[in-house]
Amino acid sequence: LMIIRDALPKDLEDIVRLEKISFTYPYPPHCLGVLIRHALCLVAFEGNQLVGYATATLDQGKGHILSMAVDPAFRRRGIGTALLKALLNRLKGVDTILLEVREGNEAGRHLYGSQGFMVTGRMLNYYPDGEGALVMSKRFKHGDVDKHGNVGVCS
After folding, report:
1. Which residues, including other chains, have CB under 8 Å from residue 2's CB and lie 6 or more apart?
2. pLDDT tens digit string along 89-123?
């Protein structure tokens, strides 16, 4: 049984572990600690094991998904989709949600696209290794629910 809840400071060690095994250039632990305390940060558990997390910020009607990871041993089980849907639900009321994803991250691009995100830009040399990022965004009209069960309607 998967449970998704707000991250707590005690989750930092497991979030750092996921970040390090998921990304070539992980966020430093102190940055992740700040996100847990001051941003929207959700964690997914299977039993007692933290198997995924997602974090976003909200500023002037815009949401920004900063990072999202699922333990490699638990991928392809719907955890990423559940985390993303929970994050989108918590960001209801925003006009736009955006994120950056590696151009080569097919799984991430597919996940975001499945929830109505569209490629709206490209950033060359975004990552330290020179790989570019795609900017993906989702725009909402307030109050409705889209076909993915998320608050708002893609415009």
Report:
1. 44, 45, 46, 51, 79, 82
2. 998 888 899 999 999 999 999 999 999 999 999 99
112 catalytic? Reply is yes
pTM, two decimals, is 0.85
Catalytic position from the list 112, 126, 127, 131? 112
Is residue 25 part of the annotated active site? The answer reads no
Pairing mode, strands 40-46 and 49-59: antiparallel
Give me the count of residues in the chain: 155
Of residues 13, 53, 100, 127, which has the active-site annotation? 100
Which has the closest alpha carbon to 84: 47, 46, 115?
115
Residue closest to 27 by CA, chosen among 37, 16, 38, 11: 16
